[in-house]
Amino acid sequence: MDYRKIGFGLKNEVSSASKLAIAGGREPRMKGNLIRLCVLLSLTLVGYTLADTIANATSSALGSGWSISTIDDVDLGYYVHHSYTSLAVDGEDNIHISYRGPDYDLRYATNENGGWLTETVYDVTPRVARENSIAVDSNDRPHISFSYRDGSNENLMYANNVTGTWVVETVDNGLSVGMESDIALDGDDNAHISHWQWNGSDLRYSASESGEWNLPEEIDDASWDRTSIAVDSQDKVHLAYRLASALKYATNLSGSWEMTVIDPAVGGYAGPAIALDGNDKVYLGYSSGSDLQYATNVSGLWVTSTVASGANAGAHHSIAIDNESKAHVSYYNGNKGDLEYANNVTGSWSTQTIDSEGDVGRSSSIAIDSAGNVHISYRYDVVSAFSLKGVWGSSSADILAIGNEVKINNSDGTIARYDGSNWMNTRTTSEGLNAVWGSSSVDVFAVGNYGRIWHYDGSQWSEAYTGSGHLYGVWGSSSADVFAVGSGGKIMHYDGNAWNQMDSGTTSHLYDVWGSSSANVFAVGSGGTILHYDGNAWNQMHSGSTAYLHGVWGSSSANIFAVGSGGTILHYDGNAWDQMDSGTAAQLDGIWGSSSADVFAVGSGGEILHYDGGTWSEMVSGTTSYLYDVWGSSPADVFAVGSRGTILHYDGESWEAMVSAKLKYATTAFQTTYLPIIFK
């Protein structure tokens, strides 16, 4: 008996009508299908039937299993509703993804040659592709819309590689246009793009015809949110967008633009996503409050239903329609930090968690191939933070970074921990966090917005105090002597039992606090404010500066530094404060040192300064992110944190980024399988 294995990629052979529905009116080419069909027919000679084999393949494709892979790094920076990844499937069921790379560049990935290949499409400073969208034409060539910021102005850009080489052009360069763009192609492969204009708050529409772009149209007033576009089999355009609290739909089906309110009370960011079926019926996915909603006009009237209640998906969701006119939705579950998937194939909505590794699922994009397989691109954020404001540790293997989380809004707080090997999110709080300090690994305090103070006892975080105003800085001499400072001159003190407000004698905002002992504490703030606490009362000190002072630290009672706006660095020698030459005009926010001759200051634009006991000099940070705080366990183990979840590490030689975000891909596609064929 001779056993041999033949490998082939098995796909369901669907009818021409089904293919027309999937491909938007154009039948995909049949390259390779004849070979597959011959192989399948040959199986009947050894006891297999074509129907059985296709049924087995369908079961594999539609089962609960997902194949998940990581494709590339992506930009750390993201906002609530921007689209950083976009996915399309071509006529050969190959995948094409556009996304924003780690250097603010527009990138493209495809598996059309078997494995994943990535390339840079456009990389021009200062910022590219914060929002992007991809579509594939009848020749399987990608077309991408994206935004490009030139100074303070946003532009709508368009790229394609129809000729095999990427060609990029400006479509609209009005005042802050091109934001939240989405692209679709018509039957002649002409591009249609919806986008949003900041100045005027307008929904705009741009279309090409035979390679030439028509003048942009202002369709309707619109609020800052994702726009979504689809083109039907008659080359008519369908748009979804938000105006104030209303989800709206616009179409030129009748020859002129008509607008309809689909849901009058969606609240904040809705992130509308639109898709059409083979009969040109419209399907919408959108968020309303914390619920993920669905709307369709299949019956002739708009009908809505709830896909996932309380998912807090924001705008991080996408919708696709299969050849049976069933809806498939990918979305980010903001409560769990997971990528989830829902469909109504059975007539009611069913949901499934696809990926729960870390914080995953933002900016998801979904598509269905000709075999009914689902494909999703999405982000994996190692540390999910809009900005990290503070860093502190008890040792080199126990470091905490705190800041603002991004889910529905950026006011939630996030706490990440480094164990000496990896960073991971450990806690989300109800309000944004601004500073962290501890007396030990089992006695840590974090302060934030709306007077919140959180405490960690080594096993869990608990809310220790809720007040008013915002708290920006925290420090203590011991577990029973902790100070927190904030807006309006607020100073709170913890004596080991309770938090009580102190008389600061000022209404200036206070941003940081540090001391050399319980009777020698300094608080700094707006307008050059410096306060000193001698163990009995707070008193104003003469700083000689009007700068906003954001950070304070010292190596002793006679060697203290304060940093602030305009590159301000003040030094206190135990008698008076004097201005130092920083050599920069950048705003400085954080300061820390291992000794009087080894001090680091960080600030805007990725600025890092080092003081060697004599002069301040600039270091190469490798980032343009705003850096808010710095802390270290030794001269060769220093951490800086900042905007877009940035975490840098200094090993005594150079600064390196510690975390990155990833582009991930999940699919139900039936992978190449080797079936045994027995020759008798």
CATH architecture of the largest domain: 6 Propeller
As a whole number of angstroms, the C-alpha radius of gyration is 29 Å
Number of helical runs? 3
Strand runs, count: 59
Question: Helical residue percent?
Answer: under 10%
Integer tally of domains: 3
Overall description:
- The protein is mostly beta strands.
- It has three domains: 2-60 and 670-679, no CATH class; 61-382, Neuraminidase (6 Propeller); 387-659, 7 Propeller (Methylamine Dehydrogenase, Chain H), CATH 2.130.10.10.
- It contains three helices and 59 strands.
- Strands 11, 12, 13, 14 and 15 form a five-stranded antiparallel β-sheet that branches.
- A hairpin with a 4-residue loop joins strand 47 and strand 48.
- The N and C termini lie close together (6 Å).
- The model is unreliable at 1-63 and 671-680 (pLDDT under 50).
Furnish the topology, listing elements before pairings:
Blueprint: E1 2-8, H1 16-22, H2 33-43, H3 50-61, E2 67-74, E3 85-89, E4 95-100, E5 106-110, E6 117-122, E7 127-136, E8 142-150, E9 153-160, E10 167-172, E11 179-185, E12 191-197, E13 202-209, E14 212-213, E15 217-221, E16 228-231, E17 237-243, E18 246-251, E19 258-263, E20 273-276, E21 282-288, E22 291-296, E23 303-308, E24 317-321, E25 327-333, E26 338-343, E27 350-355, E28 359-368, E29 374-381, E30 387-395, E31 398-404, E32 413-418, E33 423-429, E34 433-440, E35 443-448, E36 453-456, E37 461-465, E38 471-478, E39 481-486, E40 491-494, E41 499-502, E42 510-517, E43 520-525, E44 530-533, E45 538-541, E46 549-556, E47 559-564, E48 569-572, E49 577-579, E50 588-595, E51 598-603, E52 608-611, E53 616-618, E54 627-634, E55 637-642, E56 647-650, E57 655-657, E58 661-667, E59 673-679
Antiparallel strand pairs: 1-59, 2-58, 3-4, 4-5, 5-6, 7-8, 8-9, 9-10, 11-12, 12-13, 13-14, 13-15, 16-17, 17-18, 18-19, 20-21, 21-22, 22-23, 24-25, 25-26, 26-27, 28-29, 29-58, 30-31, 31-32, 32-33, 34-35, 35-36, 36-37, 38-39, 39-40, 40-41, 42-43, 43-44, 44-45, 46-47, 47-48, 48-49, 50-51, 51-52, ...
